[in-house]
Amino acid sequence: MASRNTARANDTDGGNDAELRGAAATRARILHHAERLFGEQGYEGVSVRQIGIGAGVPVALVNYHFGSKEGLFRAIFTSRASHTHDERLIGLKLVEMETDPDRKLELMVKAILLPMIHLRHTEKSSSYAQIMAREVSSPSPLSQQIIQDYFDPVASILIDALAKALPDHSIDEVHWGYHTMIGAMVFIMADTGRIERLSNGLVSPDDEDKTAAHLVALLTAALKHGRVPPRKSPSQNSKPDAK
Questions:
Q1: pLDDT of the chain, 243 residues: tens digit per residue
Q2: Which CATH number do you get for residue 58?
Q3: CATH for 114
Q4: Is residue 233 part of a domain?
Q5: Contact, 212 vs 155, CB < 8 A?
């Protein structure tokens, strides 16, 4: 009798595990198709029905897993941002341990750029970057709130670390430097073939190592040498009186 009860319990546990795996797979499939559609058409251009059709599930199941279209949109950032944020913070640990100023700056640039470049390479898709590029360039109230919630806290940490890596730079130079890096990264991440077309196939953002090497070298040099000359005072600009 006890063995029968044990067998039933094992069957129930096995059924529950299979059900959980099935639910997780369905959720992942919905997220995948939502990311692709949001990347192609933007948040306003996509309906929950379109996402359900792409994922092969009814609208009710999309809402069951994510509550609403906004909940699904936020879930994309939750799944993507948390991983890249963790990698960036690990990169900052290496920055903190480095004592050579030039090497410290290079590691700082890598901590900011490499997690997103690696994400594009491993996913073989630019959908998330296309979402980012669209929401940064034409932000809606929703996307502004999402960026504030998911990205600003880590951005503040990165900017503080960048200021320490560039102790002789002004606060203006640090902030413009950070935003230039983010802009370059998002543009490259969202590339849909232009650089490959213009280079006649010789250059591709799909080559992770070369993309990282060029971006890190260019942006490290820009941060180090792209200084704004101090403004002259009105008295310095005025010419001496003719004798």
A1: 555 555 554 554 555 667 667 788 899 999 999 999 998 888 889 999 999 999 999 999 999 999 999 999 999 988 888 788 889 999 999 999 999 999 999 999 999 999 888 877 776 667 887 887 777 777 778 888 888 888 899 999 999 999 999 999 999 999 999 999 998 988 887 777 889 999 999 998 888 899 999 999 999 999 999 888 877 766 655 555 544
A2: 1.10.10.60
A3: 1.10.357.10
A4: no
A5: no
Q: Does residue 205 sit in the same domain as residue 188?
A: yes
b/e string for 53-83 if b means 16 or more Cβ within 10 A?
ebbebeeebbeebbeebeebbbbbbeebbee
CB 30 within 8 A of CB 65: yes
Helices 59-66 and 69-97 sit at what angle, rounded to 10 degrees? Answer: 40
Provide the domain limits for residue 17: 11-67
Of 236, 203, 200, 219, whose CA–CA distance to 112 is shortest? 219
What CA–CA distance (Å, rounded) separates 18 from 105?
48
Q: Work out the angle at residue 83's Cα, subtended by the Cα atoms of residues 79 and 89, and round it to the nearest 5 degrees.
A: 145
- Contact yes or no for 227/173 (Cβ under 8 A): yes
Element (H, E) at 198: helix 194-198
Backbone angles phi, psi at 126, to 5 degrees: -105, 15
Location of structure tokens 């990311």:
35
Tokens 């600009």 appear where?
237
